[in-house]
Amino acid sequence: MVDASDVARASDQGTPAYVHIAQTLEQRMTSGDYPAGSRLPSGSRLCIEFGVSPMTVRRALHMLEDRGLVIARQGQGTFARSFDLSDSLFRLDFRGGEWLDESADIRLLEASMTRADDNVAHRLEVEQGQMVVHLRRLVSYDGDPAMSHTEYILYDPRRPLVEAQLQLTSLNAFLDSGGTHRFSRGFLHLTAVDLDNDSAELLQAAEGASALRLEHVFQDTDGTPVSWGWFLLRAELFRLSARLGSL
Amino acid sequence: MVDASDVARASDQGTPAYVHIAQTLEQRMTSGDYPAGSRLPSGSRLCIEFGVSPMTVRRALHMLEDRGLVIARQGQGTFARSFDLSDSLFRLDFRGGEWLDESADIRLLEASMTRADDNVAHRLEVEQGQMVVHLRRLVSYDGDPAMSHTEYILYDPRRPLVEAQLQLTSLNAFLDSGGTHRFSRGFLHLTAVDLDNDSAELLQAAEGASALRLEHVFQDTDGTPVSWGWFLLRAELFRLSARLGSL
DNA sequence: TAGTGGTCTAGACCACTTA
DNA sequence: AAGTGGTCTAGACCACTAG
User: Helix or strand or coil: residue A9?
Assistant: First the structure.
């Protein structure tokens, strides 16, 4: 019989048992003890080996599964996966500061009602020609244009939420951590593009200069698309970064 | 007294209790019941409200914390965070197929020993002028160039690991799921760039065309940089995507 | 049927913060 | 001192997969 305080001391310093187990298993995978595709010892065996309860082993395996290092198949076992670069999780950074601080200046360039063209209608899942709200913004830092934002927002007269949605989809709402609204669902796509004439001028960059294009669809809680749009981010100012490996 | 089978039935269908709890809490955050910055009910209160044990509540909170929707501060409480786009986790997709399948062709364009210049020396944390391995590869799909890869690998005569490292950092090792080796540590940075003359020609794109530049540093288990390099990905073929919100 | 992963309990002790 | 999150136990039952 072991009690909690014994176990806490068991690994060595203050590192939790589940972290220690996960690290040990990861090390065995990278060192070749558990080659990619091979089956790891079962939960019960790991309990015995590490002298911990099932819950603790499960949490360690859960960590590895979240990070994609391992895949568990019910009734079969837990298997080592090889690392796949395409599974890396990137985080979008703004170089040289926070996304939105006091030096950020958001200018609303356009706010109008227009009829949805083919593209807009498709993304917002409405009929072509339906009225939608069209917004265009420019975000500058210290007077330097850094990104533009073009957005089309659903306008449904039967549920007059435009006011709330305008706020919902305002830059502040998802760039500023202090906002009260947030999105419940949606997706993002990020690609590299050449700036067209118009955007290049707006961002004070050369025509054809590279930019990151971050496209978004934000959905209502029921899955209805509410907003479609994209940011154009000056390439020198933004990047995505990811860390590989242990913690 | 409730036993496990009662609880499993409690939520409704087969959804685990911790998922149900996490979803409920997320809904309350988006609906404004728990505004950004506010404190969520404590673990013990949630146990009472949902009629589950502490471990189950903790797992639900853990999920929300992993997704960045919530931040837990020991001794204070768990607080709702507003969603921050910059925290989105992107996944790199290859449009139109798998990263590496039978149609992929990897050509080694260059493999030589060179002296580390300023840049290389800095990234690999060696002295300028030290010998390093220089590799350059081109990956094509169905005969179409899709990405190039330039890489500098540490060459330390005192520990002759070059052979193993070559394999470690080979394309197969991190693009092909069947490999046995994997990286233990490192980081990635992704930006948009204009292709220079050389790269444009190699990728059969126009000079100045946009591309994604995926820079990497792979480290040994002890943190020593082993490989520095970058991929240039034709912009039309790759993108990053992320899903927001619930599952 | 035996073994696997997946979930859950009803407690416990610890480290930490606030008052 | 009271309340918080963080960790852990020693069992349990379930769903699934295999032989």
Answer: helix
| Residue among A240, A230, A228, A99 nearest B240 (CA) | A240
* Whether A82 contacts chain B with CB within 8 A: yes
Quick check: A210 and B219 CB within 8 A?
A: no
Mean pLDDT of A218-229: 79
Beta bridge mates, B139: B106, B147
SS3 labels along B7-57:
HHHHCCCCCCHHHHHHHHHHHHHHHCCCCCCCECCCHHHHHHHHCCCHHHH
Q: Is B29 within 8 Å of A92 when comparing Cβ atoms?
A: no
Q: pLDDT, tens digit, for every residue of A84-120? A: 666 666 766 665 555 544 456 767 788 788 999 999 9
In angstroms, how far is CA B132 from the centroid of its own chain?
Answer: 27
Q: Rounded CA gap, B67 and B82, in Å?
A: 11
CB contact under 8 A, A182 and B82: yes
Residue A194 and residue B189: Cα distance in Å, rounded?
A: 20
Instruction: Average the pLDDT over B209-223 and give the result.
Output: 83
Residues B106, B94, A120: CA angle, nearest 5 degrees: 150
A54 interfacial to chain B (CB closer than 8 Å): no
pTM of the model: 0.73
In the prediction, which pLDDT does A162 show? 43
How far is it, in rounded angstroms, from Cα B8 to Cα B28? 23
- Tell me the C-alpha distance between B76 and A160, whole Å: 40
In whole angstroms, give the CA distance from residue B183 to residue A245. Answer: 7
Only one residue has tokens 């549920």, namely A159
**Nearest nucleotide (CA of A3 to C1'):** D9
To 10 degrees, the CA torsion angle through A167, A172, A177, A180?
-10
Q: Which two tokens stand for residue B84?
A: 């921050």
Q: Which has more pLDDT, A158 or A240?
A: A240
Spatial distance between the Cα atoms of B65 and B71, rounded to a whole number of angstroms: 6
- Cβ neighbours of residue B51 under 8 Å, at least 6 residues apart? B2, B7, B10
Q: Ramachandran region of residue A50, left (φ > 0), alpha (ψ -120 to 50) or beta?
A: alpha
CA atoms within 13 A on the CB side of B210: 26
pLDDT value at residue B175:
40
User: Which amino acid belongs to residue B92?
Assistant: L
Protein A177 CA to nucleic acid C19 C1', in Å?
Answer: 29
Q: Is the dihedral of CA B50, B56, B57, B62 positive or negative?
A: negative
Q: For residue A192, what are the β-bridge partners?
A: A212
Tell me the shortest Cα–Cα distance from B115 to chain A, in angstroms: 27
**For residue A172, pLDDT beyond 50:** no
Give the separation between CA A155 and CA A134, rounded to whole angstroms: 10
